[in-house]
Design a protein that fits this description.
The structure is a homodimer. Chain A has about 400 residues and is of the alpha+beta class. Helix content of chain A is about 35%, strand content about 25%. Chain A has 13 helices and 20 strands. In chain A, helix 1 packs across helix 2 and helix 1 packs parallel to helix 9. Chains A and B meet through helix 2, strand 2, helix 3 and helix 4 of A and helix 2, strand 2, helix 3 and helix 4 of B.
Chain lengths: ~400, ~400
């Protein structure tokens, strides 16, 4: 079995954890057909009911945004609602093979993007809720396409060289190696992540205090009854799955109005094909009251202004500095990888990381400290000298990160 | 504009004749994405509302037939019904870029194929009726894929050579040339086909008498009030479109119980990946009472036995021997091309080629001489020395074909 086949099998058996008789939906760009076929074969090999393909194409998506009739962006056709909501209701496994030119939608009318996102958010809410609340197993993973590979490796002499380099970086990031069985490696990896997740939930910190030499000095309050998540999750139907591959982060939500201090980004942020670089933020009672960026400042200011919640934090995520992705020293221009390279925050919508929040209305979630927004944008702040001290409700100080890695 | 772009424009502007504000559905194998994108761009260029892709993949189709759960083949999911029936109801244009390995489904359980075909026939009947009765514009055309190209050119040294050869054959067949505008050539071609179509309908022959040196000697009775079709058609919405590209045939339906004599095939027939070659049939009062084939006789016998109507003829089609496809001396292993190479018949279902048949029940159509069957299989009988004499209701004999070509 070559590395590609190992990777396909990993996504099917660990990522989705496909069950006998279960329907599998594979979303993939047409350029990645060869790999999508391997995933389909791997799903049939474990006895899935049927594989349904949900093909996409960057080129046609861009053409649509540029040239389709204007009313198209406020509509979602009936068949598409049936497709996503129907399969989510059936408990199908959703595998997304994500591969996109980071600049594909650059220059497209942002109002069309916004309206399309609102329309599909409403029409596919049953599907989106199933995914957000783990009603059904899902997994996102990536494979290279030339436009993306050339963006990551602009100095590669040929397209093929860029593609091969990106494949090697991806294989390293997802722990697919020649000699070993990635399924076994992932079981160990998930066990390790679960250890930190459970430990953090147990400590039940009131604050995390971040400091490093870049100038980050931030006090992050955590909500009452918060918990941490990492690695695998359990679907409503009882299937253990891994929603993101790779995944290195252990994450929770901050108390949205309890964050104070200065955050300095440690990596560039790519937003709709634009780069925001060398930036920092000042937060007061949770609100981002100042932002400065050497590059892309206006784009960052717009991003935190799209609604009230966009200027508050919605995610706090811990990633050891010694992770395969950080070690690869590569900017992937893809959140899936880049967010697993380093400790990060997100501004915007919070995941429901407070016990019982599944059952709460948005207003109740907000009252428990969870931020509400239409956006959710990750940005990296982890460095080799990042220290994080946890402060318990009793005022006890416990080292969480020392020099970029877990202290316990 | 290169030949590929000319071809894409031809399919959109003449094949579908896409109108401003009209939705366009493009069905294409993922392997043909580059050409599908050109068609989409051509459709946006004439102001279509939106292009919706309906991607397919031979490999996944085969995997499904081999490995999916058995009940899958009796079902059509709700979203698929909505997709086809919904867009047909809206009057969308349906472009099918057909490219398939002729042997793709070889060895697949024929019962699964049969059940899937019955299930989709029932679930998508609104779409199928729209297409059969020209309720909405549609067009089928082909582009090469390696598996097909290698089948047509088994002696090509490389896959690339086979692909290039097949492209050249297809360009010739669809009148796409370097120097000329194919849209203009097609308008002339359609005019010429319409001339023969109208002339034949006007003659209102009672019989056509076929003879050639291969041994064909057949008297074909035509139904009362039959008419002929060719080239373009007009959709219910008034859009002139060309359903098949290439198209060389002028076709009608025989009186199913009025065909007598011997038909000798002039080219092999490819059925579900199997070849039937050097065959002839004896017909008595329309029924095929004897078949002999040097190769594939059992397959042919099965094909004419799947129901009562399968052993009667449902189509009579005239194609001049001097057609671009016949001149290319190529067996394409694709009905779209091969049926336009030579005069042919089909056994099985008749097109509704009797005036007023749109409004008739199947029983009434049958009473007017139109054959009914679940199958429809074309086979070629045209040769360079084929003669056809038309016999009018008054008994007058008029040469229709002399030495393989139209006599008028």
């Amino acid at each position: 079995m070559n590395k590609l086949e190992k990777y396909a099998r990993l996504l099917v058996e660990v990522g989705l954890n496909v069950q006998k008789g279960q329907t599998v939906i594979i979303a993939a760009p047409v350029e990645c057909a060869a790999f999508a076929r391997m995933c389909a074969s791997a799903a049939y090999a474990v006895g899935c009911r049927e594989v349904i393909m949900d093909w996409g194409d960057d080129y046609l998506a861009r053409q649509k945004y540029l040239h389709a009739a204007d009313e198209v962006f406020d509509e979602v056709p009936e068949w598409r609602k049936n497709f996503y909501n129907g399969y989510a209701r059936q408990g199908a496994g959703f595998l997304r093979i994500s591969a996109s030119d980071p600049e594909n939608l650059k220059g497209v009318d942002p109002d069309r993007l916004r309206r399309a996102s609102i329309a599909s958010g409403a029409a596919l809410s049953e599907y989106r809720n199933a995914v957000t609340n783990n009603g059904t197993p899902w997994c996102i993973a990536s494979v290279p396409i030339p436009s993306w590979a050339k963006r990551v490796f602009p100095d590669a002499k040929t397209e093929q060289e860029a593609m091969e380099k990106l494949w090697e970086k991806i294989f390293a990031a997802v722990r697919v190696e020649d000699e070993t069985d990635p399924v076994q490696l992932w079981h160990e990896h998930i066990k390790r992540l679960s250890y930190y997740r459970d430990k953090l939930t147990e400590y039940n910190f009131k604050y995390l205090h971040y400091t490093n030499s870049l100038g980050t000095d931030l006090m992050v309050e955590l909500p009452e009854n918060h918990f941490w998540a990492a690695g695998s999750e359990i679907s409503k139907g009882g299937i253990e799955f891994v929603a993101n591959m790779p995944t290195e982060e252990i994450f929770s939500a901050p108390k949205f109005d309890g964050v104070n201090g200065k955050i300095v980004a440690s990596m560039p942020l790519v937003k709709d094909g634009n780069i925001i670089d060398n930036f920092y933020m000042i937060l007061k009672d949770g609100k981002i009251v100042e932002v400065h960026a050497e590059k892309g400042e206006e784009i960052l200011k717009n991003a935190i202004s799209i609604d009230e919640g966009a200027s508050y934090l919605g995610e706090v995520a811990l990633v050891p500095y010694d992770s395969p992705i950080q070690n690869s020293k590569t900017l992937f221009y893809s959140t899936l990888f880049d967010e697993n390279a380093a400790c990060h925050f997100a501004f915007g919508e919070a995941y429901p990381m407070v016990k019982g929040s599944d059952e709460m209305t948005p207003e109740e979630q907000k009252a428990h400290g969870l931020n509400i927004s239409k956006t959710h944008v990750d940005f990296m702040i982890g460095t080799a000298d990042l220290n994080i001290v946890g402060i318990t409700h009793d005022g006890e100080k416990i080292p969480v990160f020392v020099n970029g890695n877990f202290a316990f």
